[in-house]
Amino acid sequence: MVADSQPGHIDQIKQTNAGAVYRLIDQLGPVSRIDLSRLAQLAPASITKIVREMLEAHLVQETEIQEPGSRGRPAVGLVVETEAWHYLSLRISRGEIYLALRDLSSKLVVEDKLPLELVAAEPLEVRITALIDRFFIDHQQKLERLTAIAITMPGIIDTENGIVHRMPFYEDVKEMPLGEVLKNHTGVPVYIQHDISAWTMTEALFGASRGARDVIQVVIDHNVGAGVITDGRLLHAGSSSLVEIGHTQVDPYGKRCYCGNHGCLETIASVDSVLELAQLRLGQSMSSTLHGQPLTVESLCAAAQQGDLLAKDIITGVGINVGRIIAIMVNLFNPQKILIGSPLSQASDVLFPAIADSIRQQSLPAYSKHIVVESTQFTNQGTMAGAALVKDAMYNGSLLIRLLQG
Ligand SMILES: [Zn+2]
Hints:
The chain has 406 residues and is an alpha/beta fold. It is 41% helix and 20% strand. The chain has 3 domains: 9-80, Orthogonal Bundle (Arc Repressor Mutant, subunit A); 85-199 and 382-404, Nucleotidyltransferase, domain 5 (2-Layer Sandwich); 210-375, ATPase, nucleotide binding domain (Nucleotidyltransferase, domain 5, 2-Layer Sandwich), CATH 3.30.420. It has helices spanning 9-28, 33-40, 44-56, 124-138, 178-186, 195-206, 266-269, 271-282, 297-305, 309-333, 348-362, 365-368, 384-395, 398-404; strands at residues 60-65, 75-80, 85-93, 96-103, 108-115, 145-153, 156-158, 163-166, 190-194, 215-220, 224-230, 233-234, 337-341, 372-375. Strands 5-4-3-6-9 form a 5-stranded mixed sheet, with helices on both faces. Strands 12-11-10-13-14 form a 5-stranded mixed sheet, sandwiched between helices. A hairpin with a 4-residue loop joins β7 (156-158) and β8. α8 packs antiparallel against α10 (309-333), α9 (297-305) packs across α10 (309-333) and α10 (309-333) packs across α11 (348-362). The radius of gyration is 24 Å and the shape is globular. Residues 247, 257, 259, 261, 264, 266 line the site of zinc ion (ZN).
């Protein structure tokens, strides 16, 4: 996050406690102060103080809760107040940008998708700033109080300082101080995260890995990468690092990869290389139902689901290779769940068993025995990933404290 100053020790405790209480109210509300004290393991006096500040700031409100079976006076419960608090969620991908307003419950207020030229005379951060200004003018009728900006994008990103070192597709980007530029322009904190890491957080907060403490999420798309949640926290959350499984060698005699090595997983399992392989092998398989129709991810997956031998064989091959690398990760992290985020999940009946079998054959049986391989709930599109960054900043207290201080 890009913010003004680091809090001192006492402030840090206050921030952590306030964040924990806000999280409980958000996830369990309506919830009473007594239950909050028990669940947060904080003294009733501390709960009273934190809740009073949140009430005054209009971040929570009181509501009546009638205990089931009770005829007495209803108890007072607390729920979060979210509608008057907005944030801007941005997503940058190849040649396009999404801009969205969401409220603190993550609900979408408005979303625009606009072209973003890969190369232009003006620097990318200048163009993004102009698009944000335009967006706020277009939607000023809908805008409530702006609390933050969240940005998700591919690239090598210093998330702590909001600096984008490099980006795929946008080749002019070098050490872009996007966080600083937008914070100075708008006056609100800016959260930037790599899109695969942010997607992993999204699934953990709102999606398929909700409630799981240890998760491996593998993304197979134009690139192949992963996000790891270990003991409830995203691995590498505050650094430029990623879980680069796409650049682990699976074939020493394989194709040269743009990273400089040979036979990386990405040269075999990325969507583009899978389609390339399918095209090559179609020439040797006259009976395939893929003949006579355009070869796309959709047609390949549909053919595999319908039992076409060539299509099944290609998807199974992806599963075996991806599973081999996940097996090593299973031995490192012993996850409860493996999530696959990929357009190839359209052939999940073929892909997921191939991955699961490969993991079972190549990792510690005690770890892999209960492994579940399933699809992510969200896709790698839209601005929900930014919602995860803001939710995380409310729960860890960093954004919450700023809103409490007005
Ligand atoms: Zn590579």
